[in-house]
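Hello forum,

I keep getting stuck at the same step: I have a sequence, I want structure tokens, and every attempt I make locally crashes halfway through. Rather than fight my setup again tonight, could one of you with a working pipeline run this one for me? It's a single chain of 350 residues.
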Amino acid sequence: MDFGLTQPQELLRNSIARFLAQDVGLERVRRVMDSESGRDEAIHGQLGDQGITGLLIDMDLGGSGLGMQEAAIAAQEIGRAAAPVNFHSSCVLAPLLIAGADSGERRSDLLEGIAEGKTLVTPILDAPIEDGRLDGSVLYVPDAAWADAFLLENEGSLHLLDATTAGIAVEPLQTVDDTRRVADVTFLSVDLGTAHSLGGNADSTRRAVHAARIALAADALGAAQKGLHISVEYARERKQFDRVIGSFQAVKHICAEVLAEVDPVQSLLWHAAAVWDEGSDEIDRFAPLLKAHATDVASQAVTMATQVMGGIGFTHECDMHVFYKRAGYDRQMLGNPTALREEVAAVMYG
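Reply #2:
Ran it on my machine without issues. Output:
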């Protein structure tokens, strides 16, 4: 099987990469990182104009009707650009959960709003629902401080809760990655009757989570590739002892070893995305293993790439730290490598 990109997919990647390079450069990313809110109010609208927010949404609802391979392409380029958006949450997990819910006018309106980049829905998996009430806290919820609504999932059932509902407290959290903000969301005995039930089922939820893991793996891969690019460019210019440091064997070895580890992840990413698109149950193994391996490799890659740059690589002024932290975020969200490998072992061996 050929896991390379088709011509339309190459055109999609080039289009997304060009848009991100022109409109979402590191100067803009740094402004978001240094801001108190950590929010870029225009980013989702711009992604919507480019069709990125609606990649996984049916065409009759304003989306592109494409698959996981195209979403992985977008996620990888977003990671390469360190764009300040939780793509895995707002553009993958949320629309797939909603699409798997029971049909209805509200469902269609939500998906159309997401496709246009006008509606930001934040999913919360395993929401603290008991006896018809929401009561408890959920940590590290993406975009919680400015979401339009929370999509609450519990045992496959979905409920849409307006973010302005009384009894919701949102406390921003400081994490390693300032390009994507998260928060602690506390529900103070909120009556579930104030939420809109969307139905849903456990199987579609499972596949949606796997899709989000693939997107996180793609983001980490893009960050690792960009980190390697930065270090190689630095090694070509930085001089020591009247020679560029890229001519030293030790530096060459580091760059070559990073490339040798990072490059094979691309094929694994395309394979996992293809398995998801085929609807195969094999995705229960491939998606967790992809994310575990990709984020492990990405974390190691940006660590080694930082060492090529010496002391400057650890400073705030150097762009390398942006991708180092990006990979750290991807590593932890929706299961760290150890937990994901244990999950696969349970699937395979019981």
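The chain has three domains: 7-116, 121-199, 202-349. If your local run keeps crashing, start a new thread with the error log.
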